[in-house]
From TrEMBL:
This is ABC transporter permease. Gene3D superfamilies: MetI-like. Belongs to the binding-protein-dependent transport system permease family. GO terms for biological process: transmembrane transport.
């Protein structure tokens, strides 16, 4: 029963970290300025938010399948495939949580009082100094809230992950996929315990997000 739990935590941690590293510069850039590329790029990022996860999984299968496109190149060249592997589950989960991470980070950067940035610029602070010493200290709470929300979504990902990684017991099983197959097999007790574990993580994360949101609101009212 513990293998799906560790798989889910591992996948959620890595996919959240990847999504954060990829979306941090993009969200910061588009929060600061308008660009002709903003609409198409944001549309591409936000698509998984409006598509069924199974459709996202189907697109990833088309891209990474052993007989298709990039997946065929990887398999023929390196004898490696993302299909039916934890690596495939991480990619699928990352794609699914990109919209949540992007929206959370962008909202955090937009909440910054621009007068603080202008004041730093008048003191000849560099862009890096402004980001590290002005922006991050004033919006780390909503950033952390966005990260936690993305992590929780990653923990519960099912459709795209199942399409790409499948359900191989001891290899690619996650909490969500294990619950589904345990119910199919009539093992309601194990399914219940797995669901309870995921529920506790979600409740804890939502409580932390609530505390962070309240503190950020108090900080904004005090400024």
């Amino acid at each position: 029963m513990f293998t799906p739990v560790w798989h889910s935590i591992f996948i959620a941690l890595l996919s959240t970290a990847i999504a954060f590293l990829v979306m941090l510069p993009l969200s910061y850039y588009f929060a600061k300025r308008n660009s002709k590329w903003q609409l198409p790029i944001e549309t591409l990022i936000l698509l998984p938010l409006v598509l069924p996860p199974t459709v996202v999984g189907l697109l990833l299968l088309s891209l990474f399948g052993k007989n298709n496109g990039f997946g065929a190149f990887l398999f023929d060249t390196f004898h490696f495939s993302f299909i039916f592997s934890l690596a495939g589950a991480i990619i699928a989960t990352t794609i699914i949580i990109l919209p949540i991470m992007y929206q959370g980070l962008k909202a955090a950067f937009l909440s910054i009082d621009h007068e603080l940035v202008w004041a730093a610029e008048t003191l000849s602070a560099t862009s890096g100094q402004i980001f590290r010493k002005v922006i991050l200290p004033n919006c780390w709470q909503p950033i952390l809230a966005g990260i936690l929300l993305s992590f929780c979504r990653a923990m519960g990902e099912f459709g795209a992950t199942l399409m790409v990684a499948g359900y191989i017991e001891g290899k690619t099983d996650t909490i969500a996929s294990s619950i589904y197959f345990m119910v199919q097999q009539g093992d309601m007790r194990t399914a219940f315990y797995l669901g309870l574990f995921n529920l506790l993580i979600g409740v804890a994360a939502l409580f932390i997000i609530h505390v962070l949101t309240v503190r950020q609101s108090q900080l904004m009212r005090g400024m």
